[in-house]
């Protein structure tokens, strides 16, 4: 199963196999360094073993996932077993011997004729490395059914680690409800591009999507419709934990968002006592924003928030709870300040750090609070002031990173308030120098939000997220030195056969040379 192809007699005998190899230059997001070993080919066969770091359950879990993917499409057994020392054949996932510079999330991958060796300092790095390995294999490896081989990879040495710690995606479950399986499907897609945070927008004017035991009508009534008047839906706590656990298995941390004090009509409709006038408004199924507010002067508001944050925190292994805070146009600035002064300590009380849409950060001196920039300008005083105090910013400029913006005027889905966003628009900005007063050292990372006013099905998600999600993921992962639109569009184009195997219904942008 070993081939030194170029320059040997084998090259003449096996030109077709060599031609079918995926180019290591096509990996998305672009790795820090890729050194092809010209002419070297590695074959995965019915005899290939996956060895994982001896005694590490986490490494074993990464190995089992890789085996699961490979077994389905190759039909080979791929046994997973503890590595004894340094294996000389097969595929090894090792937690020893990686260069310290690759950090907690990076990896080194060496594909030779004899073996595939992946080294990382932590399991997250091994997982990231297996995503690179997937892209080195033929696209048919993504098939759900058994395919014919050969299963060959080009020889290569990859050293890789992320530019930013936070590579995020957001899905709005509130405007249209998306069931657990749809979220898992999105998680599968995200993990291929090394996304490591999934932000779930769980409550908005049109729907409340998570059971809160102490306020049961939030889900049963507040979750009973959605934009357009459909039946809506909500997650039980078991459903929600299933998502959190599934994400964790892909080294993705879920960040739950409960948007407040605005974007709260579903809660206000569910409990009359939360309204200043004691009257519950009707449920809403339109896409207006900025009309609802929790009642800042009522004590019950803070009992409600305390209960909700307590229950959400208990379901959240990650460090962050997102408290929204955007478009509070029905709350006066003084009331907004009063509200955040009461609510942010509640987040801390339950052991979490607050994240929010950027405007909330003007109310706090907590440098652990994370403002998520969602503006359309390249300077923002509230965010720059927070950076002066020491806060780190999550970058989601709406005219670049919003996956719900239309690609162009004829895109059948999406909105256009932040403009049209073609693939080059999504790709061509530098998160580390985009906002004045926000140097790279103050950037925590990037997130691509997908609001779902017009997004109802998995196919809709596919169409808006692909190919822009990989563009944002690359901005989060790859060193700026690799940033090159012409190279990126080629690499994106090479993803198409993979997406077809996955059943992913992407937008065939005319900007990309699709294969
Ligand atoms: C603005 S971005 C909103 C959302 C909408 C979105 C649609 C932000 C923090 N708020 O309520 O869904 O635009 O693009």
TrEMBL record:
InterPro entries linked: Beta_hexosaminidase_sua/sub, CBM5/12, CBM_sf_5/12, GH, Glyco_hydro_20_cat, Hex-like_dom2, HEX_bac_N
Coiled-coil region list: none
UniProt key word Signal: yes
Top EC category: hydrolase
Chain segments annotated as transmembrane: none
Any Pfam family the entry gives: CBM_5_12
Active site: 327 (proton donor)
UniProt-recorded Gene Ontology molecular function terms: beta-N-acetylhexosaminidase activity; carbohydrate binding
Keyword annotations from UniProtKB, A to Z: Glycosidase, Hydrolase, Signal
Single GO BP term: glycosaminoglycan metabolic process
Catalytic activity, reaction form: Hydrolysis of terminal non-reducing N-acetyl-D-hexosamine residues in N-acetyl-beta-D-hexosaminides
GO cellular component assignments: extracellular region; membrane
Keyword Transmembrane: no
EC number, as in UniProt: 3.2.1.52
Protein family membership: Belongs to the glycosyl hydrolase 20 family.
Descriptive protein name: beta-N-acetylhexosaminidase
Species of provenance: Amycolatopsis cihanbeyliensis
